[in-house]
Amino acid sequence: MAVAFQPQLTADGQSVASVEALLRWRLPDGSFISPESAVAYAEREGLIDVIGLYVLQQACTAARAWPGLVLAVNISPTHFAKPGFVDDVARVLDATWFPANRLEIEIVESAAFDDPDHASRQIERLHAIGARVAMDDFGTGYSSLSLLQRLPFDKVKIDKSFVDGIPATRSVAILHAMIALVRALGMKVTAEGVETVEQQRFLKAAGCHYLQGFLYARPLPAESIPAFLEKYKRPLR
């Protein structure tokens, strides 16, 4: 297993704001298991918490060398739901000497759907130790609007499936509404899966704060991040 990092840029494409840590599981023949298959296997074998902590620790250790850069790490719903989850995060931060205010925990909507009250407490505890929390894959579930109203997220990530639809009329209308809603609630907005200049221009004009996708970079090994950062200025946060 290895951890790769995909940069997230400001909407103008000029500055690197953060990187998302992504698990890469290599087979003996050199090929990689798809992220979906890796997560499914880990959940089936009861390894998802262990692997999640491995990714968090490896990512924090690497990102400590990139001052000022926010680190986003996706956490499984089963791990997020456990009472000791925030304690696990705090221990990793202490062990790696990584600043909590540079960590952004990403959770998918299903992590909050079953028990919103517990999810709210978990988010508040993460805030208490200094970390941020983002809702990942916004728009793909059935209760995003109610969860946004109830839960104190710092950021919302719009799913790639909506970005793919640009410039179709329906996709454009939905994106405008989603971005306006999230901004009205005082949260930041990231769009995933940005692959074309046309998508970047639309999302910037629509009010997205950050963009992530192959237009800027595919997931990179940790040793390639410093060279990537050299090409961009850092945003004022």
Care to describe what's here?
It contains eleven helices and ten strands. The protein has helices spanning 35-44, 48-63, 77-81, 85-96, 110-113, 116-128, 144-150, 160-163, 169-184, 197-206, 225-230; strands spanning 2-10, 16-26, 32-33, 70-74, 103-108, 132-138, 155-158, 188-191, 210-211, 220-221. The chain is globular. Helix 2 runs parallel beside helix 4. The protein is α/β, with parallel strands linked by helices and 237 residues long.
Kindly list the characteristics that best describe this protein:
237 residues, alpha/beta, TIM Barrel, 11 helices, 10 strands
Secondary-structure topology with pairs:
Layout: E1 2-10, E2 16-26, E3 32-33, H1 35-44, H2 48-63, E4 70-74, H3 77-81, H4 85-96, E5 103-108, H5 110-113, H6 116-128, E6 132-138, H7 144-150, E7 155-158, H8 160-163, H9 169-184, E8 188-191, H10 197-206, E9 210-211, E10 220-221, H11 225-230
Helix pairs in contact: 2-4
- Would you state the CATH class? Alpha Beta
Main sheet characteristics:
8 strands, mixed, barrel
Q: Spell out the helices and strands N to C.
A: EEEHHEHHEHHEHEHHEHEEH
**Overall morphology:** globular
End-to-end C-alpha gap: 33 Å
The H-level CATH homologous superfamily, spelled out, is EAL domain
The total beta strand count reads 10
Proportion in β-strands: 15-25%
Low-confidence stretches: none
Radius of gyration: 17 Å
Give the name of the CATH architecture.
Alpha-Beta Barrel
Class computed from helices, strands and strand pairing: alpha/beta
- State the strand order across the main sheet: 1-2-4-5-6-7-8-9
Average of per-residue pLDDT values: 89
